[in-house]
Design goal:
two-stranded antiparallel sheet, 2 strands, mainly alpha, elongated, 79% helix, single chain
C-alpha cells in the first residue's frame, strides 16, 4: 500500500482559483476583491462557529483530515489477490499455524489482525463480526470528518452574508456622502463572494472527496474479510482468486486477467524449455 499526492484535488483547487481570478482580472481589478476584514468575518467567524458546533478532539481532526484529502492510499486489489493466493496455498500445504511467520511482513494492520484471529482459531462468524465492527467504526470516524467540512461549507456563506449586512449598515451611515456608497457596496458584497467561493470550491468538494475515499476503503476491507475467511475455510486458491475479482473494478479486472494470461504463458514456456 502506497501513499501519493492526489493530483486531481490539487488540480481542481488550482484550476478553480485560476479561472475565477482570471475572469476577475479580465473584467476588472483584482485588488478590489481583496479585503482582510472580509476574510476575518468569513473564515474566522465560520471557524469560531465550528468550535461551538464540535468538540476539541474533533476540531483537531481537521488538520489530519485535510492531509488525507490531499494524499491517497493506493490499494492495489491485484496485490491483495496475489497475497491471498500465496497465503492460501501455504495454509493448505503447511496448515494455518504456518502463516504466523508471514504476519510481520504485512503492512496492512486490518489484514494482519484478521489473519491473527484465523491463526488463533476464532470462529468464522466471530472474526467477521469483529472485522465488520472495525469497518463501521472507521466509517463513523470518516463521516465525522466529512461533517466538519460540510458544516464549514454551510457556515462560510452564512458568515459571508453577515459580513455583507455589516458592510451595508456601515454604508447606510454614510448616505450623506454619495462618493462612498459605491465602494461601500462593493466591500459589503466581497464577504458573500468569499463565503460562496470557500464553500463551493474547497469545503464541500473536500467533504465529497473524503466520502468517496471512505467508501473505497470500506470496499477494500470487505474484500480482505472475504479473503481471510476463505483462507480459514481452506478454499481452493484459484477459486479464492476468482471470488476476490468481484471486488475489482472492470479496468482492474482486465489487468488481472491479462496478468494471469502472461503468467500462464510464462509457465508453459518454462515447462517447454525443461522438456
Amino acid at each position: 500500500m502506497q501513499k501519493r499526492m492526489d493530483i486531481l484535488t490539487v488540480l481542481g483547487i488550482v484550476l478553480g482559483l485560476s479561472l475565477v481570478l482570471g475572469a476577475i482580472a479580465m473584467e476588472g481589478n483584482l485588488v478590489v476583491f481583496w479585503s482582510f476584514s472580509s476574510l476575518m468575518i468569513t473564515v474566522g467567524g465560520s471557524f469560531a462557529a465550528l468550535l461551538i458546533n464540535f468538540q476539541m478532539p474533533q476540531i483537531k481532526m481537521v488538520f489530519q483530515i485535510t492531509r488525507k484529502a490531499f494524499l491517497e492510499e493506493v490499494k492495489d486489489i491485484g496485490e491483495y489477490i496475489s497475497l491471498f493466493v500465496t497465503l492460501g496455498q501455504k495454509a493448505r500445504r503447511e496448515g494455518l499455524l504456518a502463516l504466523e511467520d508471514d504476519l510481520a511482513g504485512l503492512d496492512d494492520d486490518f489484514l494482519a489482525g484478521g489473519m491473527q484471529m484465523v491463526i488463533d482459531g476464532l470462529d468464522p462468524e466471530m472474526i467477521r463480526d469483529i472485522m465488520e465492527t472495525e469497518i463501521e467504526a472507521t466509517a463513523a470516524r470518516h463521516r465525522l470528518g466529512q461533517d466538519v467540512f460540510r458544516t464549514w461549507g454551510t457556515l462560510a456563506p452564512a458568515f459571508g452574508m453577515i459580513g455583507t449586512l455589516i458592510g451595508l449598515i456601515q454604508m447606510l451611515t454614510n448616505l450623506d456622502d454619495p462618493s462612498r456608497i459605491g465602494p461601500g457596496m462593493a466591500v459589503a458584497l466581497i464577504t458573500t463572494f468569499y463565503g460562496a467561493l470557500l464553500a463551493n470550491l474547497l469545503f464541500i468538494p473536500l467533504a465529497g472527496k473524503l466520502s468517496i475515499r471512505s467508501e473505497a476503503e470500506s470496499a477494500a476491507k470487505m474484500a480482505i474479510i472475504e479473503g481471510v475467511l476463505a483462507i480459514q475455510a481452506g478454499t481452493n486458491p484459484r477459486i479464492l482468486q476468482e471470488k476476490l475479482k468481484a471486488f475489482a473494478s472492470p479496468g482492474e479486472r482486465r489487468q488481472l486477467e491479462q496478468k494471469q494470461k502472461e503468467d500462464s504463458t510464462g509457465s508453459e514456456e518454462m515447462v517447454y524449455d525443461h522438456a
